[in-house]
């Protein structure tokens, strides 16, 4: 470890050839060895796996060499391999974790649909959270000042 600080993407030079965990903007988690970077923080990962977490289970999908555009990186950190072995998560097959992930996403969509349906008559649409119902629009302007009034079709 060096005692000086490298600004910007140059600080990633210290992470070359180390095993890294990378969170992407689309929600994916990658684990691999950093082999190369450039001035835009684009990464080349080697022996990469995509790890999918659902509740207390995880599954690893081998991806090989993976090029990541720097704009898509949310978080990047070195993995302590000793601590990685001591996780209290259950490893399952790729097919199982993909099925569990699909079921979880469907349940979340159903829950969001039910929430939107419940709020439909209240004037609070599922897109604009907290908009005022149409019946309040008849109030004097000084009462409505500073409140968000939604102009969408739901109210």
Automatic annotation (TrEMBL):
Name of the protein in question: U6 snRNA-associated Sm-like protein LSm1
GO annotations of cellular component type: Lsm1-7-Pat1 complex; P-body; ribonucleoprotein complex
GO MF annotation terms: mRNA binding
Residue span, Sm domain: 7-82
Gene: LSM1
InterPro entries, per the entry: Lsm1, LSM_dom_sf, PTHR15588, Sm, Sm_dom_euk/arc
Pfam families documented for this protein: LSM
Natural source organism: Ixodes ricinus
Family label: Belongs to the snRNP Sm proteins family.
Physiological role: Plays a role in the degradation of histone mRNAs, the only eukaryotic mRNAs that are not polyadenylated. Probably also part of an LSm subunits-containing complex involved in the general process of mRNA degradation. Probably involved with other LSm subunits in the general process of degradation of mRNAs.
Signal peptide: none
Cellular localisation: Cytoplasm; Cytoplasm, P-body
Keywords: Cytoplasm, mRNA processing, mRNA splicing, Phosphoprotein, Ribonucleoprotein, RNA-binding
A Gene Ontology biological process term: mRNA processing
Lineage top rank: taxon: Eukaryota
Subunit architecture: Interacts with SLBP; interaction with SLBP occurs when histone mRNA is being rapidly degraded during the S phase. LSm subunits form a heteromer with a donut shape.
